[in-house]
Amino acid sequence: MKNIDYRRASVLLFDPVGVNLRNTRYALHEIGFREISCLSSVNEFKRRLEDTSPDLIIAELVNNENELLRAVRAVRSGELGRNPFVVFAFTSWVRDGQVMKQAIDSGVDDVIIRPFSTAFAEERIRTLVKARKPFVVTSDYIGPDRRKDIDRGIGAGNRVEAPNTLQVVTEGDESAIDEANRWIAEARRTVEAERIRRLCMRLSVGVEVGLRELSSGNVAVLDLEDLTRTAKELRLRLARQSAGEASRIAFALYQVCEELMGEGGFTMANLNLIKELAMGVLTAFAGGDSVETSVKEIEATVEALRRRLAPVRQLESGKSKEAELQRAAS
Q1: Cα(222)–Cα(201) distance, integer angstroms
Q2: Which intervals hold domain Response regulatory (predicted)?
């Protein structure tokens, strides 16, 4: 097993409270880190994320939750910084379950609850070096895959071996260090392609569920704003890649989603058109086996979602009948 030398790694450390910032820096120094950039301004922290490429990021979550959660998502999606796969951990004085869930759902690697000992922090960081989790890519999440094997069914997202520059640097793997940029670029392309595929699937699944509910005489449960947001992200991602035909189809798809939200725009024809255009984007962008695999996943996901909706429909139907009886009795 290769030895870890933390002196080789760079750390970007953020905490708005001076005493906490100093304590965390002291702990990192005791562990062995020497290149530690300390920041207490969240705006300066985000600027550093954009301009530098640290091997480890540690940020205190409390009092800046919304900005930091957005920052992690932006990093993971490649919109902020140079390395979407950078090891990123939060520290937090708060143990609130909802806050912790939001943190984990942002794509951060770890949340270290304060107060913590130097030994505890070292153990958590060592785990991120030696046993970091693979990443998973879905339509609304990019980050460590924390699910158990039993939860990884159809439609659960593909796993990606995320480049771990913290491990490469601290273990002094010179050949891997030289290959780091190529390694990151290749992984970014893999993640971007899977993200685009998942966005197409999200649109197809959402619309198909609605169509089948309408065909069965039920009320269509459709989040039109989510459809439009998804179509917009898909359009922007393909435009950045200059994806030609796929980009042009995605633009048309976005326009139909916007029309769906307008007066008179919610029609079966538009719903079907969105489904066709989403598959058209996928065919133009990926083609071949990827489309065939996606169609199977879409069908399985649609049926699973409809099964979940069944108890809700039954409950609503029961309430409706009860209300009718009450009106009749009165």
Answers
A1: 15
A2: 10-129
Query: CA 258: distance to chain centroid?
Result: 24
pLDDT at 320: 47
Distances (CA, A) of 67 to 46, 58, 62, 70, 73: 9, 14, 11, 5, 10
**pTM confidence score:** 0.74
Q: Is residue 40 helix, strand or coil? A: coil
- Separation CA 198–CA 158 (nearest Å): 10
189 pLDDT more than 90: no
CB-based contact 117:85 (threshold 8 Å): no
Phi, psi of 112 (to 5 degrees): -105, 115
Domain boundaries, the chain: 6-178, 192-329
Rounded (10°) CA dihedral 234, 239, 240, 246: 70
Q: What is the CATH number of domain 6-178?
A: 3.40.50.2300
Nearest of 254, 110, 285, 253 to residue 189 by alpha carbon: 285
Type of residue at 139: S
Residue type, 149: D
What CA–CA distance (Å, rounded) separates 254 from 157? 23
51-62 exposure pattern, b = at least 16 Cβ within 10 A, e = fewer: eeebbbbbbbbb
**Residue 83: closest CA among 182, 199, 193, 196:** 182
What sign results for the dihedral spanned by CA atoms 188, 100, 18, 67? positive
Summarised one tens digit per residue, pLDDT across range 13-22 is: 999 999 999 9
pLDDT digits (tens, 9 = 90+) for 109-153: 999 999 999 999 999 999 999 999 999 988 789 999 987 754 444
Structure tokens at 268: 């079966």
Report pLDDT for 149.
Answer: 54
For residues 132 and 194, the answer to whether their CB atoms sit within 8 Å is no
The 10s digit of each residue's pLDDT in 278-317 is: 989 988 887 665 666 667 777 776 667 666 656 655 544 4
Task: Say if residues 61 and 96 touch (Cβ distance below 8 Å).
Answer: no
The pair of structure tokens assigned to 45 is: 């922290």
Phi, psi at 27, each rounded to 5° = -60, -45
60: β partners: 91
